[in-house]
Amino acid sequence: MPVVILCGGRGTRLKEETEWRPKPMVKIGDRPILWHIMKLYASWGFTDFILCLGYKGEMIKDYFLNYDLKQCDIRLDLGSKRVEKLSEGHQEDNWTISLIDTGQDTATGGRLKIASKYIKQDTFLFTYGDGVANVDIGKLVKYHRQKQKWATVTAVRPSSRYGELAIADGIAEAFSEKPQTNEGWINGGFFVLNRKVFDLIDDEQTNWENEPLQRLAQMGQLATYQHDGFWQCMDTYREMEILNELWERDRAPWRRWE
Q1: Domain count within the chain
Q2: Residues facing residue 98 across a β-bridge
Q3: Is the residue at 253 inside a domain?
Q4: Residue 222 CB-density burial (10 A; 0-12 exposed, 13-18 middle, 19+ buried)
Q5: Is the separation of the CB atoms in 72 and 90 below 8 Å?
Q6: Alpha carbon distance 35, 27 (integer Å)
Q7: Geometric angle at alpha carbon 52, from 47 and 56, rounded to 5°
Q8: Contact, 6 vs 108, CB < 8 A?
Q9: Is residue 239 situated within a structural domain?
Q10: Quick check: is 82 in a domain?
Q11: Running DSSP on this structure, what letter comes out for residue 202?
């Protein structure tokens, strides 16, 4: 079952970083957030990736084309250009990655439609290249199969726009920066889809979040997998800082690999 990841948006709300690189290449620790997302799926056994490229997509291509050599010690013969690996540098030998140019200004649904010709299976996984979570992908897939709908979306609790104070007798007992709320559910990505959804995408300017998802809901073909655990997107500079702080403190909930 392949994992399709949207990697083509411009990420204008994170322009401090995305002026120079595509948002999926913005780092958490010393690795791009895209790598973290792929490692999450790989930890559940899903290692066949289809990356929908767009804005500065050549940087993502270069990253993976040179991935093997960047992760290990090498000896280079400048005359013959022969490269010899001196060490084993990574654990991703079983990954396969299709790097698909889906256009500079294509909408999210349009990118999925363009990538559809590389998706041979009836069921596939689909997500955004800018968010991490501790979603149990195995349970998500099982839930999708039980519901037998065209699509399953992972529903998550949104984060508050403001820091939250816990107060007792006029004294603050705790402060939480942008905690998750208990008010409603939002689209957290991490979809499981049947290829029938391609029929709901009209053209390259179709936003996946608009008509396709709305029509699936109207048809009764959109199951929701409710995830009460950790979820965080990287839309702003502050959210990038939050994710990096969690990683640096070894408190990243999405990390389930060694």
Answers
A1: 1
A2: 50
A3: no
A4: buried
A5: yes
A6: 9
A7: 120
A8: yes
A9: yes
A10: yes
A11: -
Torsion 169-175-178-184 (CA) sign: negative
Q: Where are the alpha helices (DSSP H) in the chain?
A: 15-18, 33-43, 57-65, 67-70, 108-115, 137-147, 211-218, 237-248
Residue 187 lies in a domain: yes
Mapped onto helix, strand or coil, the DSSP state of residue 204 is coil
> Does 160 score more than 90 pLDDT?
no
Length of the chain in residues, anyone?
A: 258
Q: Which domain holds residue 101?
A: 3-248
The CATH number that applies at residue 114 is: 3.90.550.10
Q: Which residue has the tokens 């996946």?
A: 208
The whole-angstrom separation of Cα 135 and Cα 174 is 27
Give the tens place of pLDDT for each residue, 35-50: 999 999 999 999 999 9
Amino acid residing at 135: V
Structure tokens at 172: 């603050």
Q: Long-range pairs for 202-208 at CB < 8 Å and ≥24 separation?
A: 203/110, 203/113, 204/103, 204/106, 204/107, 204/110, 204/113, 204/114, 205/106, 205/107, 205/110, 206/107, 206/109, 206/110, 206/113, 207/107, 207/108, 207/109, 208/107, 208/108, 208/109, 208/112
Q: What is the pLDDT of residues 201-253, one digit of tens each?
A: 999 999 999 889 998 998 889 999 999 999 999 999 999 999 999 999 999 99
Write the single-letter amino acid at 219: M
- Predicted structure pTM score: 0.88
